[in-house]
Amino acid sequence: MFDNKKTFIGFSIGIAFLSVLLIVFLATGLWRRFFYPEAHEDIRAKVITPLEVGAFYGMGQSGQTLLYENLSTKIPMEDGEVVIAVLNKESEEGLMEEQFALFRNASDTSGQVYITFFSYDESAGRYKRTWNAATAATRQETISLYSQDLIGDRNNCIVITGMNNNNEYTMTIFRHSLSQRAEQPYKKIAELQIDGSIVVQEAGRSIAYQQGMTIGQSHNIAAYGHDSSLNNILDQIETIYSYNASSEQYEQTRVSRIPGSQVEQRRLRELLSGVPGVFENFINDLWYYVSPQGTIETKQYIYFDPGREIIFYSDEAQQVYQWQNSAPTRLGLHITSQNISISTLRRRIDIELESLDSIKLRVADDVRLKITVNESWDGSYRRAGASGSREPVSQIKPAVDAVYDSSWGRFQFSSSGEYLINSSGNVRKGRYVFYKVDKNDLLELRPEESQSSRMVFNIEAVGESLILSRVRVGSTGIQDMLEPPITLTLVN
């Protein structure tokens, strides 16, 4: 009897062990590799957009980091097809990964951008290319590809934005065909082109939607363009497009006129001429957020350093994005940028001129990671110094080439705009910029370490030495941080 009991216990333990193995096998997705070995793919970033060298005209490659990412597709493309961006997402059934790719034909001088779709064929045990369609974009350096639930039914749409050869902003949207009889897996539900900007107006959605219990409200699309019949360059027309469930298309539902500021038109024409570099140089500055009530928000500002980086500062938090590409629009500039710490975070910025000392921003983050961002960067911004200061912020020395000794270690400033601090073999690197606020000469250090924050110093020149005092720059002036000063002694 004792032996039977031991046998029963051993049998029970064996069954429990095999059950655990089975759960691990199913939960980790190892069954996919077992049954579909050729279908397994390494996890990649959701969206990849290449960086074009020298995209900002008039600026060198100083400070630009080239980021080469994997643009491989599930199966090889045809000869002459150049991949621009890739988007991987789960299939509607949630079993296998699907892939979308944007491409252009090398022989096509117009630069027309197309989208293609790769789905997994279970009966054949491999991926197939099942669909191609044209988009409205042509300038590949401005392209963005992402998916979003625009309709509210969790059937994610595929959204392609970018510029065309007429410097118009474009948006093309495809939606999965719900009908089993549909000839194509995706159908085009919107294609817009305008000489201004296009944004998705996200509607508020209930907790029930977030929890998957009900559908949500559809998002509208807003397009901002110019009416040639209006005399003022800054006057705009806002056109709203809403989703029509009957036609399964986005249709125009409202048109509104937005009067612009009445300012000197000749200067506006110069800034909005479309000449590469003109508008970039205009925004090379520090800009503070202006509330709808007209007050300046000192805790939210943006610093533009054309061709190099864009700094977003809000409530003591700092986000630094690399300036990748910019393209002139009728009312300003379209910028694509990438977070310097997390390469999969991309940000598109549409800048419109409001007056000679104010701009309006529409900022969109590409939907690649499930990251909740509380602050909104959309709205009006005023140039620092334009209200209350005697002089605007201006750059006084773009770069120097010198070496200094200090209590921090040896400072080395290079003409490329980079600095290096060597303290007993401990090396810190980053970028620097000299600029002026009112009559104060300032130095800003931007460490390359992702966890380090930028530092601003007031500069006092004593002979060939520099005395640096830590300060904070705000719209109301310069605040001394009351930290011990640092003396930089020139090394001859």
What do you see in this structure?
This protein has 492 residues and is mostly beta strands. It folds into four domains: 2-31, no CATH class; 38-258, no CATH class; 265-389, Lipocalin, CATH 2.40.128; 395-490. Helices cover 10% and strands 47% of the residues. The protein has five helices and 31 strands. It has helices at residues 2-27, 30-35, 207-210, 265-271, 278-283, and strands at residues 47-48, 81-90, 97-105, 114-121, 126-134, 139-148, 157-163, 169-176, 186-194, 197-201, 220-225, 236-244, 249-258, 286-290, 296-305, 309-314, 317-328, 332-339, 346-355, 358-365, 379-383, 394-397, 402-406, 409-413, 418-423, 426-437, 440-447, 455-462, 465-474, 477-480, 486-490. It has an eight-stranded antiparallel beta barrel with strand order 14-15-16-17-18-19-20-21. A hairpin with a 3-residue loop joins strand 17 (317-328) and strand 18. The longest helix has 26 residues, at 2-27. The chain is globular, with a radius of gyration of 27 Å. The protein starts with a helix and ends with a strand. The model is unreliable at 27-68, 369-374 and 387-398 (pLDDT under 50).
